[in-house]
Design brief:
Elements: H1 2-18, E1 40-42, E2 46-50, E3 56-57, E4 61-67, E5 75-83, E6 89-96, E7 98-99, E8 105-110, E9 118-128, E10 133-144
Parallel strand pairs: 3-10
Antiparallel strand pairs: 1-10, 2-4, 4-8, 5-6, 5-9, 7-8, 9-10
Length: 148
């Protein structure tokens, strides 16, 4: 009798877990995006002021800038990624940024570990924490120092 009463609850919980919204995947990077070229933007209201595109950085990477029109409840996060041997990108670290709601300025640090120096990206994103959806992103190419 107890199993009969619990079964609908278990089924409802399972169904709710399966329909939870998922984060938007990172779009593929255009050719040459890992070079020391200009900022790679995707319709962004984010301006990264530090580090500069092409700059050599080490862990922890100091990240700073401005975001225009940040809606209440949204978060700003940064991540560091490196090129892997197959030409893809490998995640190295991420962190939430501190944001001044009045001015839209953000800052923070991202720790990472990397065996050998090489090309990488610093990406800043505006995130809806309720769904995990990336609403906006700005990416710059940097040179990552090795950090054990």
């Amino acid at each position: 009798m107890t199993v009969r009463r619990l079964l609908p609850v278990v089924v409802a919980l399972f169904a709710a877990a399966c329909t939870r919204p998922r984060a938007v995947p990172t779009p593929p990077m255009p050719p040459g995006a890992l070079g020391a070229g200009p900022t790679v933007a995707v319709a962004s209201e984010i301006r990264i002021e530090a580090p500069q595109a092409g700059q050599a950085v080490s862990s922890p990477v100091g990240v700073a800038g401005r975001v225009a029109g940040l809606a209440p409840g949204r978060q700003v996060a940064a991540q560091v990624r490196a090129a892997d041997a197959g030409g893809g990108l490998r995640w190295l670290g991420n962190s939430l940024m501190q944001v001044d709601a009045g001015s839209g300025t953000f800052s923070g640090r991202v720790d990472y570990a990397l065996e050998a120096p090489g090309a990488g990206l610093v990406e800043v994103m505006v995130i809806d924490p309720a769904t995990g959806t990336v609403l906006d992103r700005q990416t710059i190419a940097v040179t990552l120092d090795a950090e054990p």
